[in-house]
Each structure stands twice: as structure tokens, then as C-alpha cells.
Amino acid sequence: MEFTLIPDLVPQNRHAVIKVYVSRKWIFRGAMDNGPIHHIDLVLIDKEGNGISAEIPGNLAEEKGSIIKENEIYEISRFTISSARQMFKPVHIDKMIHFTYHTIIKASLDSPSTFPRYVYHLTPLHQIESYIQKNEYFLDVLGVITQVSALKPVRTQTQESSNVIKEIIIKDINDVTMRLTLWAERAKAFKLDDVYNPLEQKPIVTLFVGCLAKNFQGAYLNGGTTCRWYFNPDIKEAAPYYQRFGSQKIKLQIPSEQEQQLSVAKETHVEHKTLHELLTLDPYAFPI
């Protein structure tokens, strides 16, 4: 079967069939942690490394969304193509895919290793501040991890229950540093056990995708449900990092499981916001 590449997709072609790798998948519930599913978002990549975002509407979340899993390859047909949304775009492309009741999803026998793993558009760390409150695109960054905090409990007035965050400090090739805050399940999922040896202390070059620029005690990156990371990625932009930091040692204080539990058990901090601040909140600022 002949498959259409992502750049060749047009709204007029309703018979296109694509074979794609599911690089990212997340659920969007609005600003409430336990709200109804508005839609499921996907980032799909074809065999040539072209990426596109896709959306499964809330009313098809169970029927269609349950079929698709992250890091797997699928053949997909009977979908529609439209212009990309105006805000919160995870991929730099002017179109997107919409799943419908008629969309057919078939698991492929191809190995995921035969497809590119990720699609990204890097933003230099020194430019992050200029993207605060500019949410047309999610931001992707590259850096070496220099600090990792334990899980910390936190609650804002927009959340009914407390949540957890994990703060990470990265630096780029020019030693510009940036704080990245992971929320909820993303914070819990971030582990370095398989990539960091305390005896060797080898630097970990990391590609973070799906972040937003925020301002709280200075500019920082916010990593909610859209955020993913790739340790020591095999990409051309990482080559200078491996060359510069490859022979260096970076000592990271990795919190133990017991320290994580003790940290989370501490009294929850409530972040107070004015009415104006609440009205200007965007729904992607908080985890789902």
C-alpha cells in the first residue's frame, strides 16, 4: 500500500492513508484536574521525520483514543485535514489532523525503531523570556541537566486538591541556565535511574519538548501533560554538547524514594492569585 507523507496531506484528499509513529499523546481536560475530556492530542511522525498534530474529540476518546498508544506505529485513514489551531501548537506546521467517527486505525507490524522518534523546533534558552504569554507554539529546548529537585507538594486556587512538581535546572552550550518545572504525572514520571550513574557522573544532554514559557520569580519553563523528554538524543544540535561536556563530570543530587515521600508529605503551599491573574490564566498552565 502507498502511504501519503505528511507534507502532501491536503483537505481535498479524503482518501489519504498515512503510516505514522505516535511520538506524543496527552489528554486535555481544560483547567480542572478531573474535568471531562475535551479532546486527546497527538503528535504523529511519518517515515521521513515530518510531524503533525492530531486531535481526537472528547466524544470519541474511548472509542478511538483507547486504540492509540504512544511510541507505536499505526496506519490511519478516513480523517480530515484543517488549518492548525491558532494557539498551543506542538508542531511548526500550518495544518492538523482531525479524527472522526469514520476514522480507521490499524496497528502496524513495523518496528518503532524504523521511524524517527521525535520532532522538535529548538528555542535558545536566552530567548525563553521573550515567549512569556506568547502561546502560539509549545517550546522545545536542549540542555544539560545540572540540578533535579525532589517532588514538592503545591496547590493553587484553581485546583481542588494538592499536586506535586519537580524542578529541573538545565544549561546550554553557553552556560545559560533555565528552570523547568514539571507538574503532576509528568513530575512523577521523570527519573534518571537508567541514565545517570553517581560514580561516573556523566553529563545528561536532554531534549525537552512541549513546554510553555512562564514568569514566577523569573522566567521559567512549565512542563504539563504535553511535555516529554529524551535523554542524550541522537540529533545534530546535541553534537556540540557531547563534544564540550563529554569529558566533564556533573554531580547530581538524586533524591531517594524515601526523600521523595517525605518531601511530598510536607505542608502544601497555596499560591494566591488576584482576580486579574485568574482571568488571564491559560488552561495549559496547569497539569491534567
TrEMBL record:
Residues 3-107 form the Replication protein A 70 kDa DNA-binding subunit B/D first OB fold domain. The keyword Lipid biosynthesis does not apply. The keyword Glycoprotein does not apply. InterPro entries: NA-bd_OB-fold, REPA_OB_2, RFA1B/D_OB_1st. Pfam families: DUF223, REPA_OB_2. Keywords: DNA-binding. GO terms for molecular function: DNA binding. Residues 134-221 form the Replication protein A OB domain. Signal peptide: none annotated. PANTHER family: OS03G0429900 PROTEIN (PTHR47165), RETROTRANSPOSON-LIKE PROTEIN (PTHR47165:SF3). This is Replication protein A OB domain-containing protein. It comes from Zea mays.
